[in-house]
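Hello,

Our lab assistant flagged a job as stuck in the queue for most of the afternoon. It eventually completed. Since we weren't sure the result was trustworthy after the delay, we are filing this so someone can double-check. Below is the sequence as submitted and the structure that was eventually returned. Let us know if re-running is recommended.
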Amino acid sequence: MLMHGARNLCLLLVLMAPGAAMAQAMFSLFVGTRSEVADRMIELAGLKAGDVVVDLGAGDGRLVIGSAKAKAGVTGFGAELDPKLVREATARAWVEGVSDRVKFLNQNVFDTDLRRVDVIYMWLFPELQRLLRNKIMVEARPGTRIVTQMFDMGTWQADAVDAEQQSVRMWIVPANIAGNWNWDLALPGTGKNTYASIIDQNFQQADAVVRVGKIRRATREFKVNGTQISFTLNIPLPGLEGSQEHEFIGRVIGNVIEGKVRMHRPVKGDSEKFDVTEYPWRATRSSKTTYFNPTGIELPR
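-- returned structure --
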């Protein structure tokens, strides 16, 4: 793990390191994570059997080794610039009895393959973590957990904070849901309606606008957690009285969302009660949208 050091040493590392290596090396002074902090990082990661963990800037390997010891079936690897630390971490894994499940690479963190990992550990300088943020968003799968301490991820807000060690935080890589989405719903009393939606996204924060016929409305309570999304929509539908409350819950699979929608309809004669009916929901992302089609001046009543 990395911490501040003498300015002249940082400058020397910068001058010696080309390309991406320069970006890492200028921040690469090793200070080991305290044992109690490492334990909280591993706890917050919520490890499951079969998880693959990586430590970017692995140092002496304590987080990767600790993860393998904490949960059976967990495997992992660490990326570390200093070959001496790589040798120490490898020897430590053998002593701790997990050398068959972990390994350590003399590698730049920018060259580390994040496509098949479930947990990413980091304790890097703030600027380096921000430089890695785009790599994580592009390479890591939605749902991947990122656990770090002390420093943040810039404008990307943490999804969880450890209750005992407030400096330990976790981020969950959100699915990319920005863009145009379309779906149809066939409902009793109104027939098939086409919904045209545009979703705006900033990391795990998102909101959307939706058009049905000539009516447009904004979504509410939009949540993104890895591949899982949910939101509500209150919009009038042809043939039905008043606005119709929709509750969408789905899983993002590339350019498709599959899930369900719950319709909350007032019980006739009792505005305090609702009938809730569930329908399948499937939305697809498209390069085109009808959201901006002409509306006219004669709106539905």
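-- support follow-up --
The delay was a queue issue, not a problem with the job. The result is valid. The chain has two domains: 7-172, 179-286. The chain has a mean pLDDT of 89.
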